[in-house]
Amino acid sequence: MSAKDRPYRRRTQLVHAGRDPSAQHGFINTPTYRGSTVLSPTVAHLKAREGYVYGTHGTPTTSALEDAWSELAGAAGTVLLPSGLAAIALALLSVVKAGDDILITDSVYRPTRNFCASVLARLGVTTRYYDPLIGAGIAELILPQTSVIFTEAPGSQSFEMQDIPAIAAAAHARGICVMMDNTWATPLFFPAHGHGVDLAIEAGTKYLSGHSDLLLGLVSANAAYFPQLRATFDAMSPCAGPEDVFLALRGLRTLELRLREAERQGLALARWLQGRPEVLRVLHPALADDPGHALWKRDFSGSSGLFSVVLKPVAQARVEAMLDHLKLFGMGYSWGGFESLVIPFDCSSYRTATTWAPGGPTLRFQVGLEDMADLQDDLAQGFGQLAG
Ligand SMILES: *Cc1c(COP(=O)(O)O)cnc(C)c1O
Questions:
Q1: Cα(61) to centroid of ligand 1, in Å?
Q2: Are residues 199 and 262 in the same domain?
Q3: How many other CB atoms are there within 10 angstroms of residue 353's CB atom?
Q4: I need a labelling partner for 254 at 20 to 30 A (CA). Which of 15, 117, 240, 312 fits?
Q5: Whose CA is closest to 148, among 89, 218, 95?
Q6: Is the CB of residue 61 below 6 angstroms from any atom belonging to ligand 1?
Q7: Residue 66 sits in which domain range?
Q8: Is the pTM value of this prediction over 0.70?
Q9: Of 230, 252, 274, which residue sits at a domain end?
């Protein structure tokens, strides 16, 4: 059954997309197919075989998630990769060639910069960074050899919003591919392809997993870019692990419920932090006084549970004492799981198109599903350490 046969609303799609119980003896979920060899009964069948030919070409498990994601994202097709960073790398490699120039937002996920500065630079692709707030002004940076404009909204760690439709209009006027790392909002809160994005990247490691127990990347493409995305994938076979794909399919069914709760919890903690005397500013585009709020409100239908705060100036040692004293907030990378996390960060050493000077130490919070009063109590006792 294709999406066209099932013109359902999103919550119904989330339940039914990518599933065909009749092909699984009636069992509700597609099981974890594992395998390399796929047998053919005759030479003629072997030669003419289409679809499942060999493990690297996909299995019913991977097709299920690809189809479901394409339906939710409004995409022509999706490929699955073993991590979000691998998804970013494949998206870029499916478009660039030697001699190209690409434009990337200065607020991008930091490992994306590393991929461009190492692999793409070696292949003769030049990367330039632009101010995430540039909007339609991106047109002035376009060169004849520019082939990609890469966006991410809100920005990693710093949460600047971007005017994606304005950037896409400027890019498409010059035949340039628009990519977006859409991990924060997911297609549920920002349907990237509907806003002009050609290739949309999702680190499934985050909310699609929801349980901090798998690594997965997805790239969805519109009809113009899917053939070259799939061909580049097939040329390399960077296959996602079958167990991770199965778990992601399982996570998909409750993605909207979990995102809505993450949004509620995130906003509750963000608002509480706004009222704390230790906090200078909360960086969260769904807050009415955030500089990116108007764009968020215009284009996004929700927010996730990840945001940052700027503390009032205080010695770094005091911030570290505060973090060391937290009991409920784990310290570690990644996000989108059920437990709350916090990390200190500082973008100032690697930004190149903009200056990062927030006015105090910065912390990024991932808000989990714990009782909000317990999270607030934990932070309140942590804040006690700031005074020394
Ligand atoms: C985590 C993350 C990635 C990378 O995902 P991995 O699966 O950890 O490689 C990419 N983009 C953003 C915005 C992320 O937060």
A1: 22
A2: no
A3: 16
A4: 240
A5: 95
A6: no
A7: 10-252
A8: yes
A9: 252
